[in-house]
Amino acid sequence: MLLPAAGSGERLGKGPKAFLRLGGKTLLERALEAFAWADEIRVALPPGHTLQDEVNVTYRSGGASRQESVYLLLQEARGELVLVHDVARPFVVPEAVERLLEAAQKTGAATLAATLADTLVQNWRGRYGGVLPREDYQLVQTPQGFRRELLLAAHRQALASGVSATDDAQIVMRLGHAVALVPGDRRMFKITYPEDLEIAEGLAKSWKS
Ligand code: C5P
Q1: Is residue 208 part of a domain?
Q2: What spacing in Å lies between the alpha carbon of 105 and ligand 1's midpoint?
Q3: Cα distance between residue 206 and residue 202, in whole Å
Q4: What is the DSSP letter of 162?
């Protein structure tokens, strides 16, 4: 289990998201609780931050990009299958993770993805542009799950060809391996902008864990 948590949280403006408090717990604590069942959790921390390793949790300093952070963690990972989860998604729905795990085990590469509720349109310099059929599009979430060797090969190829990607499924697909789309959950959204935090604070009040 790889937990890229090294982002600076620039767009949110409240310091690194890993240490952001939501309903009395940091986003990092929430992620560690959600994946406490994992044999090993490898966390990439923002540069300058260190934490003491625990039984199944190891910390290291992250890289300059998400991709770099994941690659650093991946090189030290063991096991046949790896899951990658963004710490910025604090609401982890166990049923969705189970669906993802099952698909990743079966196919070797899978990601959670959610449907779009709104009309999807191109921005033509501030004007309403071409409407895209929203049923053809998905919002990619995490966790994503891959055979470890496959993800390693994808990262190596991305590095060698100078490709930078915002998630791991993209580079696995570039390698020529299909990635299964598994129904995600809209509550597993990523906290990015200040208003996301307001929504998250509301949801945290009724969240089980
Ligand atoms: O910036 P963004 O929200 O897309 O980041 C997605 C995830 O990648 C976050 O969990 C963030 O902490 C992580 N990240 C990282 N190393 C970086 C940049 C982002 O681990 N250098």
Answers
A1: no
A2: 25
A3: 8
A4: T
Pocket of ligand 1 from Cβ distances under 6 Å: 4-7, 17, 44, 62-66, 69, 86-88, 166, 190, 192
3-state secondary structure of 187: helix
* 115 is a domain residue: yes
Closest ligand 1 atom to the C-alpha of 166? 4
Is 209 domain-assigned? no
Taking alpha carbons only, the member of 44, 16, 46, 34 closest to residue 188 is 34
pLDDT tens sequence across 109-158 = 999 999 999 999 999 999 999 999 999 999 999 999 999 999 999 999 99
Distance 129 CA to ligand 1 centre (A): 30
Which CATH number covers residue 62? 3.90.550.10
Question: Which pairing describes strands 57-61 and 41-45: parallel, antiparallel, or unpaired?
Answer: parallel
Q: Structural domain of residue 167, as residue ranges?
A: 2-203
pTM here is 0.97
Q: How far is the CA of 60 from the centre of ligand 1 (A)?
A: 14
Q: In this structure, is residue 155 part of a structural domain?
A: yes
